[in-house]
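testing teh design pipeline on a random one, pls ignore if ur not involved
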């Protein structure tokens, strides 16, 4: 069975600016989720969906796949998770990537 982890990480948080890059116990918050996904050993691939180049570079240099930057229309304060998931599933379909399981792991809730 193919299992994929998708971590959404928008760059434009209003309440806590740049929250996915804020240090938490010495490392950017998003790295906790990426490392948790990797160390779980249950995912064949780990993807980050982001609209932010800095987040994309950090994620890619730490073991996650970042194959695209998320469109602005689903990266604003009004975007909902289902839109992010649908966008990713459409991308998978276009690339002929199949998976039996998809885990949606928030960058802000790695534990």
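output:
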């Amino acid at each position: 069975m193919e299992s994929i982890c998708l971590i959404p990480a928008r760059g434009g948080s209003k309440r806590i600016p740049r929250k996915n890059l804020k240090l938490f116990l010495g490392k950017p918050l998003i790295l906790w989720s990426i490392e948790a996904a990797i160390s779980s050993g249950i995912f064949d691939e780990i993807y980050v969906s982001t609209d932010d180049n800095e987040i994309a570079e950090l994620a890619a240099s730490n073991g996650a796949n970042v194959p695209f930057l998320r469109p602005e229309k689903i990266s604003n304060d009004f975007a909902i998770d289902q839109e992010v998931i649908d966008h990713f599933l459409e991308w998978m379909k276009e690339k002929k990537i199949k998976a039996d399981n998809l885990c949606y792991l928030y960058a802000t809730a790695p534990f």
